[in-house]
Design goal:
Elements: E1 3-6, E2 15-18, H1 27-36, H2 38-49, E3 52-57, E4 62-67, H3 70-77, E5 84-85, H4 94-97, H5 107-117, H6 123-126, H7 130-141, E6 150-151, H8 152-169, H9 175-189, H10 194-201, H11 214-238, H12 247-253, H13 264-295, H14 297-308, H15 316-320, H16 323-335, E7 345-347, E8 351-353, E9 356-358, E10 363-366, H17 368-372, H18 388-391, H19 414-429, E11 430-434, E12 442-445, E13 448-451, E14 456-462
Parallel strand pairs: 4-10
Antiparallel strand pairs: 1-2, 3-4, 5-7, 6-14, 7-10, 8-9, 11-14, 12-13
Helix pairs in contact: 1-2, 7-8, 7-19, 8-9, 8-13, 9-11, 11-13, 13-14, 13-16, 13-19, 16-19
Length: 475
């Protein structure tokens, strides 16, 4: 049981505390393993140290306590809201989302911002985006050539980005839309490789040496994106149509408990957060789902049989209720969770987790990946088995792809809804095949877990010979 001294820019004082056992290797080596081989690193730690262990990651080699037992996760998620801070533990994403992002807030400020952001992602509101998702999927896939291999992740990225930009801004065309799409793609590619991701883990690599340098290029793109976002915000304020259903309109119309609206800076940073979080994650999950479905043909057959039961032009809400399709999406998010860990919680006052006492300053990290791979919860966890979600229900402390507690992802309703509609549309309209039968391995893609190579597939034929004309968008 190590006794460590922790001093960080986000902690007000130096503290001494006892933490659970963990790797004895140098902190720099642990950090490199976390960046380069996170899955192997977590698996090895769990095998050696069990359900609770301490690792040292980041440029300051901050100790994080990984938790993977449902009881421990329940104690964290169900704790009093004043027990933890999380925003201070997420500063690594600040260059991507800005300092006024919900991800970086704590306390009353976090509660205020979350209350303002929640309504556009409520279940009833999410359903208004159904036809938009179907329309965009049809428009993008209709442009794909038969017989030519492509990256499934790239295809899903284009669909997801168009959906999120149109749903958030209500932008469907125009010069600003045409400029924003490639810039956002380029920004997200800034974290796509291990080397690029390393720039966020080590501030010493964040050197602006001009727009042609890695970090300088990233900052240049961020500035251009900000200019476009602020221009859209200003224009929308001047001609605000309260009848609009896009997220920007809804956020501009909302007021906090004191009657105050969101400022331009707050809108900018929260919109950027939604673009980053809502686009990258959904595209990657869809790529994993497409791979898993076609890697096991019996799953594809079951899905097609289920889709046949709702006819040629089903209502999006009917698609979302299909049990086997829902189970496929749930199993995708279990086996390939986008994030390795839920938001780290910084202990503000002493708390006991499964009998272990933690002092203020300790950082607790509920581990999504390890929890989803527990054999006592998910027999044969390495196998893709959608049926497990038809056979039983899992608690929010056993299945947590969107985190939990007051830090649960706002996209918990929209992301699965979009996954189901996109999968249903693509599988109903097209016959596809994997280019390579070899298993696709997961790898770090910035802060997320993505498929190596993006999953290569080919469209072999059209399932439906008649193309329906795209319907008008719901937004």
């Amino acid at each position: 049981m190590p006794v460590v001294s922790v001093e960080g820019s986000d902690l007000s004082r130096q503290i001494m505390m006892k933490l659970p056992d963990g790797p004895k290797t140098p902190a720099i080596w642990q950090t490199l393993q976390w960046v380069v081989n996170p899955l192997g690193f977590m698996d090895t730690c769990a095998q050696r140290y069990g359900d609770m262990f301490t690792v040292y990651v980041g440029e300051n080699f901050t100790p994080y306590v990984f938790l993977s037992h449902p009881q421990a996760i329940k104690q964290v998620f169900a704790a009093d809201l004043n027990q933890f801070d999380s925003g201070a533990a997420n500063q690594i994403v600040k260059p991507l989302v800005g300092e006024h992002s919900l991800l970086l807030m704590d306390g009353d400020r976090h509660r205020r911002e979350r209350q303002l952001l929640t309504p556009p992602f409520h279940g009833e509101r999410v359903r208004t985006y159904g036809q938009l998702i179907c329309n965009v999927t049809e428009q993008v896939t209709n442009q794909m050539p038969l017989g030519k291999s492509f990256s499934v992740r790239g295809l899903m990225q284009e669909i997801s980005l168009r959906v999120i930009v149109q749903a958030i801004f209500g932008l469907h065309e125009g010069e600003r839309y045409q400029q924003l799409i490639p810039l956002l793609c380029s920004m997200l590619e800034a974290t796509s490789s291990i080397w690029r991701a390393s720039q966020f883990f080590f501030k010493t690599l964040q050197q602006d040496l001009g727009s042609s340098s890695p970090w300088g290029g990233f900052l240049h793109r961020q500035q251009r994106i900000s200019e476009l976002l602020y221009a859209e915000i200003r224009e929308r304020r001047e001609n605000l149509d309260h009848s609009g259903t896009d997220v920007l309109t809804l956020l501009m119309s909302t007021r906090d408990q004191n009657g105050q609206p969101m400022t331009d800076v707050e809108l900018h940073d929260e919109l950027l957060t939604l673009l980053v979080a809502g686009h990258e994650t959904t595209a990657t999950s869809l790529a994993w789902a497409m791979y898993s479905i076609h890697h096991q043909p019996e799953i594809l057959d079951k899905l097609l049989q289920e889709l046949d039961t709702i006819g040629d032009n089903p209502d999006p809400s009917s698609i979302a209720k299909l049990p086997y399709l829902s189970a496929v999406c749930q199993e995708t998010l279990r086996m390939y969770p986008i994030l390795f860990i839920a938001f780290g919680r910084i202990v503000k006052s002493p708390i006991e987790i499964m009998g272990f006492p933690f002092e203020s300053g300790a950082i607790l990290a509920p581990c999504i990946y390890l929890t989803h791979r527990r054999k006592d919860l998910y027999p044969e966890p390495e196998k893709f088995k959608p049926e497990r979600f038809l056979e039983r229900q899992f608690s929010p402390y056993e299945y947590l792809p969107f985190g939990g507690g007051n830090r649960r992802c706002l996209g918990i309703a929209l992301a699965p809804f979009e996954m189901k509609l996109v999968l249903a549309k693509v599988l109903s309209d097209w016959q596809l095949a994997l280019v390579d039968s070899h298993p696709v391995q997961p790898t770090r893609r910035g802060f997320t877990l993505g498929p190596t190579g993006g999953v290569r597939m080919v469209i072999t034929d059209r399932r439906r010979q008649k193309l329906r004309a795209p319907q008008p968008s719901a937004l």
